[in-house]
Amino acid sequence: MAVPSDTAKGWIWLSLVVLLLFLGVWALFALTSKTFPSPAAVARESWFFLSRPFYDGGPNDKGIAILTAYSLARLCTGFLAGSVVAILLGVILGLNQTLFKALNPYIQMLKAISPIAWMPLLLYSVKDSGWAALLVVFMASLWPTLANTAFGVSNIKADYLNIANILQMKPLTKVCKVILPAAGPTIVAGLKISMGSAWVAIVPAEALLGSLGLGYFVWNEWNNLSLASVIFAILIIGVVGVLIDNLFSRLAGGLAYVD
Amino acid sequence: MWTRTEPEDQAPAAAPLFGPVGVLPQDDRGGSRRQGGTTVSKAMLEVEKISKHFTLSGQKEPFCVFRDLSLQVREKEYLSVLGHSGCGKSTLLNIIAGIDTANSGHIILNGREVQEPGLDRMVVFQNFALMPWLTVFGNVRLAVRARYPEWSKQQVADWVDKYLDMVGLSGAANKRPWELSGGMRQRAGIARAFSVKPSIMLLDEPFAQIDALTRGVIQDELVRMWEETGITIFMVTHDVDEAILLSDRIMLMSPGPQAKFMDEIEVDIPRPRKRISIIEHPRFYEIRNRIISFLSQKG
User: Fold this and answer.
1) How many Å lie between the alpha carbon of A258 and the closest alpha carbon of chain B?
2) Residue from A157, A161, A163 whose CB has the most chain B CBs within 10 Å, to mutate
3) Count of pairs with CB atoms under 8 A, one residue in A, one in B
4) Confidence bin at B22 (pLDDT 50/70/90)
5) CB contact under 8 A, A167 and B147
6) Cβ–Cβ < 8 Å for B41, B195
7) Chain A residue closest to B133 (CA)?
8) What is the pTM of this model?
């Protein structure tokens, strides 16, 4: 995990140069367009929001930390439920090749559908925007984890299963002590993709359904014609996304093994 | 009763009760090991007419690995099956272990037929088959917990420590398998196998992936543990010298397909055997030449 220190310097400078270049182009563009907010304007706006993160001015007017918390809570709930279902189904499919082969085309198809596309159906079924937003996250979390778990489990080295059988492990023990750890790295890779796609899906879901959160904030600020606030919200979404991804990379590092 | 270290103590019996075809003429030194006194060790594992074949894709005729193979392993014996690579000896071992299935025939362990894998037949694998996400300690503990589910954490830990100590791995208990050399990994595999006290241990080319210098040390350790625990060992190998050094008895398997046992040899060289001095024993080259000449034959 540790990067050798002698090679660690160069990319930081390059990274900073790219950032400055980007800010420069942005500033120039803002200067010529007159209506588009400049980096400085966005910075001022950001400071305004960041200086009062827990501000609560009624149902439609909340601080950025509260909004982020709403989105994260929705994300975690939907993601956890989706992951539990996906891992359970994935283990079953991974252990049963016939079932896996039979269902794989459908899984691949479902994986390709944007979770947002489900929204009208979900909204029609549950008739509640809060639940619908949660279910969008659930759907987004399902498929990559399911596909990866099934793949990981079906590719576990025969040796490990042989050992489990020689040790006469009960099915549940076998799953917990051998199958899940053996497929662990592949499963976490799936969880990481799922989390990414859930985080991507949550913004339009909240915006469209009007459920309080970062997505709602983006849309609300657009309706207020405050582009600076929209850009600020976009930055927050990106930063939170990177932090979540980082968390999963750490988890993957902890579960990784060399064969 | 058997005495492994001082076979000369025991009176040689007149005729071998398990007189297989083609046993070498017995000299008065080693012959006694098998029929010590009046008690003759009974067969603890019987392989009865095992056949294995499978159909390769695109071929009509099924490929026959072996047909009607039979053998007996006696209690506390070290039996080796020696044969060319790919002759089906590992398949035979896997069938005995229950992790592969035969098309016909029976495996009888202690008078009972076995079909499923079980703790009574622990395998030591050529590629070690340690769980890479567990430490050495964790690997052995996994087995001990499976064998003694009613034990407390402390009991299990003490037991694991004891066996790790036996193979000299105490210092590496918290290392992951990939941090260890092949020899250290196989020590862990051996500790795991001994720790569950199986009826019989099945060794599948256990030293093939270990460098030559370490191999000798681990072979000595294995023999010592085998003598101390009184366990029965069934080993498959393609290494002639290794088979002679370790075994009480060697079965020679012909190259496949349709492999069969061509010869059975009692290794009547007294123990303890030393890697250096065994080659000076008059029986060593007799046995070795006999094996080599059989293995050089065609089918």
Assistant:
1) 6
2) A163
3) 56
4) very low
5) yes
6) no
7) A257
8) 0.82
Contact B176 A168 (CB under 8 A): no
Q: Are B177 and B185 in contact (CB under 8 A)?
A: yes
- Between chains, do B119 and A166 touch, taking CB under 8 Å as contact? yes
**Neighboring chain B residues of A259 at a CB cutoff of 8 Å:** 132, 178
Coil, strand or helix at B164 = helix
Write down the domain spans for chain B.
75-98+114-296
DSSP, collapsed to helix, strand or coil, labels residue B196 as coil
Among B118, B132, B176, select the one facing A166 at the smallest CB separation: B118
CATH number of B75-98+114-296: 3.40.50.300
- Residues from chain B that touch A187, judged by Cβ atoms under 8 A, are none
Q: Which ipTM score applies to this complex?
A: 0.82
Q: Is B260 strand, coil or helix? A: coil
Q: Domains in chain A, ordered, with CATH?
A: 69-216+246-255 (1.10.3720.10)
Q: State how far the Cα of B129 lies from the Cα of B124, in Å rounded to an integer.
A: 8
Rounded Cα–Cα distance for residues B222 and A246 (Å):
47
How confident is the model over B125-171, as pLDDT tens digits? 999 999 999 999 999 999 999 999 999 999 999 999 999 999 999 99
Which is higher by pLDDT, B174 or B255? B174
- Asked whether the predicted pLDDT for residue B93 surpasses 80, the reply is yes
The answer to whether A185 touches A252, Cβ cutoff 8 Å, is yes
More confident residue, A130 or B245: B245
Q: What is the pLDDT of residues A127-180, one digit of tens each?
A: 888 899 999 999 999 999 999 999 999 999 999 999 999 999 999 999 999 999
Mean pLDDT of the region A3-18: 78
Q: How far is it, in rounded angstroms, from Cα B239 to Cα B215?
A: 12
- Are B142 and A167 an interchain contact pair (Cβ–Cβ within 8 Å)? yes
